Amino acid sequence: MSTSIQPLLAVQNLSIAFGERPAVDRISFSINEGETLGLVGESGSGKSATSLALLRLLPPSTRVTGYLGFAGEDLVALSERAMRRHRGRNMAMIFQEPMTALNPVMPIGAQIAEAVEAHHPSLSRREVRERVLESMHEVALPEPERRIRDYPHQFSGGQRQRILIAMAIVNRPRLLIADEPTTALDVTVQAQILALLNRLRRTHNLSMLFISHDLAVVSQVADRVAVMQHGNIVEQAPVSQLFHSPQHPYTKRLLASAPTMRTDRTQPLATLA
């Protein structure tokens, strides 16, 4: 007797249009429990619009069609009130730029606490504080008990990204959406953040949608990769297969455009037409 495992997230024929022309055109993908899918493509390919559609954070004027299934529930059909129960609790997002995602005039402890209080209003102030400190410890922020009242500008770029991750995981979500979480960081800090995300994923059996334009970064966190071009997914494959045997011409150009230690320096890098 065969049994089929339902994916945690199932996206079928998703289209997103901000005007007449669709920014995302009938894409489909899925993410299983504990799995990371890397969504890659150049700027403007529709990656971020896809992530915002999953959380229903696009402007009301945007036309979104298709099926967005989370744990068997159609997110498109949910009321806004029901969607708010998912957002930040079962599904959470790490944004690209911490300084625009964080409130500059609110202590970081209070910002993380807001995420807890929104979904657990019955908790006492002491219990909320304990959860905030636990989350800060989990992302390896230095001296959380002392720095819980500090403001975003008092932290480095890498530490601010850790604060966003602490906010995202404090309610123990099942799906984490990471939208270019390492783009604004230097290479050393980038490696630390990727290692942190991998550790949190193993510890909490997190599923993750990891969005990036950088295939080298995606290779360090993803199990499978979906490649987007002009609002379409042109190729999907396990990460090792995609890197060693890409099938679509765009994927081949994307791989060839990134220099490696074996790149022939006498030849120009491939360009994306």
TrEMBL record:
Q: Which domain of life is it from?
A: Bacteria
Keywords for this protein: ATP-binding, Cell membrane, Membrane, Nucleotide-binding, Transport
Q: How does it sit in the membrane?
A: Peripheral membrane protein
Keyword ATP-binding present in the record's keywords: the answer is yes
Domain ABC transporter stretches = 9-255
A Gene Ontology molecular function term for this protein is: ATP binding
Q: What is this protein called?
A: Peptide/nickel transport system ATP-binding protein
Family, similarity comment: Belongs to the ABC transporter superfamily.
Its annotated compartments are:
Cell inner membrane
Which SUPFAM superfamilies does UniProt cross-reference here?
P-loop containing nucleoside triphosphate hydrolases
Please indicate if the UniProt record lists Metal-binding as a keyword.
Answer: no
Q: Which InterPro entries match?
A: AAA+_ATPase (IPR003593), ABC_Ni/Peptide_Import (IPR050388), ABC_transporter-like_ATP-bd (IPR003439), ABC_transporter-like_CS (IPR017871), Oligopep_ABC_C (IPR013563), P-loop_NTPase (IPR027417)
Give the CC-aspect GO terms: plasma membrane
